[in-house]
Design brief:
241 residues; alpha/beta; Rossmann fold; six-stranded parallel beta sheet; 43% helix
Length: 241
């Protein structure tokens, strides 16, 4: 199974790739690691990449050679990555760490073409668990837009659960399992109510009620539930609630 680890910068993609991979290996699964982020300074985690795009291209080299800024260099790197063949492996799991600048990877024309090289990938979209509940609709829209652009099935997870207490986790879980609650949240944003109200109604229609794993890339908790949902998303009989 090709698992693409997605999410905004700072959400913990690389560390989750490391911790979840170690968990899978302890469970007896064969695991490969792929790094598609040409902008990270180094892959300094305990796993060894089978394919590391930084061996071919890096943002800092492009900046130096082509005299581009960080964003321009990342776009140029995506254009170069589009022409690089990404190997497909037969291991039980292939964990694919994606660029920190998710918006460039997802919304530039190259992103979907790069993803098409991968065999039937599944996405894991990471939401920072420390985000304010009032901002969940915006993050869910980001997740929906990402999976739509890349053309993949995906599940959402909350990372950094170690930063929350039990009450905070239950508050988030309540809103996630009851999407209608989004409408109640946005009432406080009165200045933008005309915008948020239709967004809330749309989310209620397109977001199925499903459980969301609360994980911690720092201490590895929540890996069991994440593994279960990865299997279920590939099974027509699976129940993600």
């Amino acid at each position: 199974m090709n698992v693409m680890v997605l999410g905004p910068a700072g959400c913990g993609k690389s560390l989750l790739t490391e911790k979840f991979g170690a968990y899978l290996e302890k469970k007896g699964y064969s695991v490969r690691y792929v790094n598609l982020d040409p902008g990270c300074l180094s892959v300094s985690y305990t796993y060894k990449c089978s394919f590391d795009v930084r061996e071919r291209i890096t943002v800092e080299k492009i900046m130096k050679i082509e005299k581009l800024g960080p964003n321009g260099a990342m776009i140029r790197a995506m254009e170069k990555l589009e022409d690089i063949e990404i190997p497909n492996y037969d291991e039980d799991f292939v964990l694919i760490d994606t660029p920190g600048r998710l918006e460039i990877f997802s919304f530039h024309r190259c992103g979907p073409k790069i993803v098409k090289q991968l065999k039937d990938p599944v996405g894991v979209f990471i939401i920072d668990a420390s985000i304010d509940v009032k901002d969940l609709p915006a993050m869910y829209l980001y997740s929906l837009a990402t999976r739509y652009r890349l053309g993949i099935d995906a599940i959402n997870i909350f990372n950094k659960a170690d930063l929350l207490d039990k009450k905070e986790i239950e508050t988030i879980r309540n809103f996630v399992l009851n999407p209608v609650k989004f409408k109640e949240i946005i009432k406080e944003k009165s200045a933008l109510l005309d915008v948020y109200s239709p967004i809330s109604e749309m989310l209620q229609k397109v977001l199925p009620a499903q459980r969301i794993p609360f994980v911690s890339a720092k201490n590895g908790t929540g890996s069991d539930e994440l593994l279960d949902m990865l299997y279920e998303i590939r099974c027509s009989c699976g129940d993600l609630t």
